[in-house]
Amino acid sequence: MRLIGIRGATMLQNNDATEMKSAVIELLKECLAKNSIKNEDLVSIIFTTTEDLNCAFPAASAREIGLGDVPLLCSKEIDVPGAPKLVVRILIHTYSDLDRKNVTHIYLRGAEILRQDLAQ
After folding, report:
1. Is 28:62 a contact under the CB 8 Å cutoff?
2. Is the pTM of this model over 0.70?
3. Going edge to edge, which strands form the sheet with 72-76?
């Protein structure tokens, strides 16, 4: 096994804590499932949000699905003019047997526009 990174993002419709929770849980579950990642293989997860999202910490959603023992960090994304709004991004650090070229990066709810080269 070796350390790899898994990227992902999701977009919200509103700055709403309930929507944040469901979108982040959906994103995390899909990233972990599509890459066959188990909790014990996780090293850490970094979450970023665009400046317009301040309704909740995305890491709180990860704790709700059993990732409370994984180091989690939230941060703000760079506020680039013209960039999409209401976006939560993740970078999962995990041990895996996957080669980087075989990692499935997950972009949901319109976030596919961020990385069309990686979106499934």
Report:
1. yes
2. yes
3. 72-76, 42-49, 87-96, 2-11, 106-108
Helix, strand counts (H, E) of the chain: 2, 5
Residue 79: left if φ>0, alpha if ψ -120 to 50, beta else—which one?
beta
**Are 32 and 8 a contacting pair, CB within 8 Å?**
no
> Which H or E run includes 26?
helix 17-34
Name the residue with tokens 């990174």. 5
Sign of CA dihedral 120, 17, 28, 101: positive
Domains of the chain: 2-114 (3.30.1330.40)
At 23-70, the pLDDT tens digits run: 999 999 999 999 999 999 999 999 999 999 999 999 999 999 999 999
